[in-house]
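Consider the following assembly input.
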Amino acid sequence: MAESTADGTAADDPPEERRIRRAITEIRREGWKVAVIYATIDAALATLVVNLVATFLGGVPALSSRLPVPRVIFRTLRETGGVTLAEPTVSSAAVVGAVVGCLVFVGEVALRVRRPLVEQFEAANPALGESLRTARDAVRREQGSRMARRLYGGVLADLKRASSIGLLDVRRVAVTVLLIAAVSIATIHLAVVDISLAGLGDRSNGVQTGGTDAEYAGLQDGSSILGEPEDVPEGSENLDATVGTSGSGSGDGTDAESATAYEDSGFGGSESVESQRAGFAEREQLEDAELIREYNLRIRQETNDE
Amino acid sequence: MSEPTVDVDKLQQRLARVREEVGKRIIGQREVLEGLLVCVLADGNALLESNPGLGKTTMVRTVADVTDLDFSRVQNTPDLMPSDITGTEIIREAGGEREFVFERGPIFANVVLADEINRATPKTQAALLEAMQEKQVTAAGETYDLPRPFFVLATQNPIDQEGTYPLPEAQTDRFLIKLVLDYPSYDEERDIVNLYTGGGSGGAAPAVDKVLTREEIKQIQSLVRELPIADDVRDRAIRLVRATREAETVDFGASPRASMGLVLTAKARAFLRGRNHVSWEDVEAMAAPVLRHRILLDFRAEREGLSTDDVIAGLVDEV
């Protein structure tokens, strides 16, 4: 048996047969490329569509939850690229989208290469199809007759003029790319506007739900943003600083003054801020004030008694 | 063993010239001429069926004239003996001595036109067909090879069947193809009349050039067999022949010899058309000539008014 080379040709093949074998290998490679191109764009589209749908259907618990990013990735990013992720989690919708995309990619590649790639090329180049098929069969039968060699020469000349672009349906690829762009824009738009089927019912009541608050729970965790606490060196200079105040806090400003103050220094004292402050004033401190007051009254009473 | 170097392009150009030269004498009948040339290239024999006066003899003689081949004609009659065709031993005196010498018959030619073969007795038909098949003649214990290339073209007259001996199916199977000449169109018939009744030629057939030698024909016959055929085309051709044995409308199907003939004639046609491979189109074109004399239709086909060519065309579409 003839010794085979890397491209499947036999070392003692006549030159024409060897070139035909190489050409067939090249055609198969082109077929793989086309299969990967189709699979890649289709997988990208599938990923984006799944992500979009999952984002839109935010109420599904399995899709709205966030999955932790493995610490290894986190650490690697920080060590290699100096990138520190604010939150080591990833949307489960994105994960589902990626998995679907991978499945689409693998499935489509498998489906496309199931039909012999050279036959696909022959179908895409009908003028060359019969002669190429005949040449393939002749090479397989190791037919080295004069007419076979003549056929090989003709096929090789035709192959130089042929193109594998016929394997690619350009219109289909263009449509898919446009769809990818459209779905991407829709995804971004959805993320900005924050439309979700899950939140529509609750928001219609005008009441902020706990579910929405939960989205900001992570940002309130200061340690995750600021990092580990560390000692700060004491300053050596003393500086006098004057902080300007708006009129609203004084209690005697008018509405016009308040408006002017708002334009100059921003929002300065409103009910919402006060309620926020009240929210941060803990009950224990209020109770302490009452206690102090009670103690003060008792001390005064005792003083008066004395 | 090294193969002789041949210029295939040159040979294919010569074949194109052959068609041009034959066209000087034969108006129309392009398919029949192509079939005839295919038969020559495939080294086979042809059965030609037509009504009288359609130029069968002229066509065959012209092919012989442009191809540098010897031509002979045998007019078959019921009293024709086998030895009249193959030859016979005669006593010849030479130098005062008498000796038996084999006198070669008309079959010792490159192109033999056996006119109205169905008028010869079965015994004579058998002798002719045996020579045709074996490419040799045996007389008085001696075997004589026929010249190569050897090509028999037998004609049959579809009308006036009285006093004829139709060829048995087993005998017709030995013909590679059967060609059917039809009447020419009006324009073609007018051109024929002008060509052969005009004053320029004096009624004689126009002169043709010899453009293909017998050696070149042998080379082409060798190249035709080397022509590659795709597996699927070959398998489909075989399925087509096998379908004739299974078709409801066919009483008696074609033999494996038909499969070989179909592939070989398809190769010859591809070569004739300047291709280096066999196309399914070649098989389709040769299906009727190769199969039409090898199958017998069932009564159902006759009842439906189907001809043999109709049935074959249906089978070609099916496979």
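Residues 1-198 of chain B form a domain with the Rossmann fold fold (CATH 3.40.50.300). Ask yourself how this observation constrains the way the partners meet.
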